[in-house]
Structures are given as structure tokens and as C-alpha cells.
Amino acid sequence: MDCIPYINDLQIEIQILKDVKANGNCDIAIIEKKIEEKEQLLNICKINLNKLSNNQICYRLYLYMLDGLSPSQAVKKIADENYKNDKKPTSISTIWEKYYKKMKKMIESE
Predict the structure, then answer these.
(1) Reported pTM
(2) Which of 53, 100, 44 minimizes the C-alpha distance to 75?
(3) Is the dihedral of CA 68, 71, 76, 80 positive or negative?
(4) Which H/E stretch holds residue 83?
(5) What are phi and psi of 40, to 5 degrees?
(6) For position 23, what pLDDT does the model report?
(7) Are 17 and 49 a contacting pair, CB within 8 Å?
(8) Whole-number pLDDT of residue 43
(9) Taking residues 2-13, what's their average pLDDT?
(10) Engineered SS bond to 74: which of 48, 50, 69, 87, CB 3.0-4.6 Å?
């Protein structure tokens, strides 16, 4: 779970670089190159997270959120997948209370 705060920081860095680029106070080519490098690294992280065991609910939640789903959509998707694969937990409330909150604390702890 140590990678989740790192990925969150990476997303923040990308946003900061985009903001700097929008203000035009520096060499745009250098900023664009850094943005591209960090986005490639983020994509590699997403691919690797996707390879993890399906039992890693916190990772799966975070991966879905990285792909643009809201937290509630990600929780519902995990519950649906677990139901279809006959895995527990299948309850949205259990996933929300136990796993989403755990993942959120990990992100905020760094």
C-alpha cells in the first residue's frame, strides 16, 4: 500500500506543472517534457496496479479512481465485481466503510 501516497503525489506534481505551464512563466518545452515523463510514470503505475491480485480491494479502488471514477462509483464497481466472482465483500457499505476509508487514510497520511 506504500505506492498509493506516491501516486497521489505524482498526480499533484502533474497538476502543478500544468498550472505553471498555463501561467507561461518558464520554458514551456521543458515543462511539457516533465509533464509527459510524469504522466508516463503514472500510466506505468496504473498498469502495475492493475496486475495486482483482485483480493487487493484498496488498490483496485484507487486504480478505478485514477481512471476517473468517483469514489462511490469505484466502490459500487468493486461490489459488483466481487458479487459476479463470488468473492466477499459484496456489500457496498462494507467496502465503503472498511476499504475506502482505509485507502483514504493512506493517501492523507503522506
Answers:
(1) 0.67
(2) 100
(3) positive
(4) helix 71-84
(5) -65, -40
(6) 85
(7) no
(8) 87
(9) 83
(10) 69
